[in-house]
């Protein structure tokens, strides 16, 4: 009887331990993904930003023109860089998900130009859906922001 109780206890501990670890790892993984994304953006490198997305990704910006796949996503970011947007920063609000699909919500801020061409702060909210890659890293499957 004691062996059966001990076995059940060990199974319960093993079953719950990865969940606790996964939550901590998920937050850290999203923080790393956000930092890499911001770094690429702040280099004004549309190819490097686009490398953060899976091949079938969708980008849904405030323009309401959905960008699908690497070529369209890269074109969107290159256009944004050409308009003078700089200094991007993502600040995590929440994360969740499982070992394959992870979501993150964030506040974003950047500096753009106003109608007179003078620097102006921009900000909003963003939602990200990531796919975990074979190496454990996260790549964007879906991104939307306002």
UniProtKB/TrEMBL annotation:
Q: Which Pfam families match?
A: SnoaL_2
**Domain SnoaL-like stretches:** 36-136
Q: Name one GO molecular function term.
A: isomerase activity
Q: Where is the signal peptide?
A: 1-23
Q: Coiled-coil intervals in this record?
A: none
Q: Which SUPFAM superfamilies does UniProt cross-reference here? A: NTF2-like (SSF54427)
- The reply on keyword Iron is no
Judging by the UniProt lineage, the source's domain of life is: Bacteria
Q: Which keywords has UniProt assigned to this entry?
A: Isomerase, Signal
Name recorded for this polypeptide:
Ketosteroid isomerase homolog
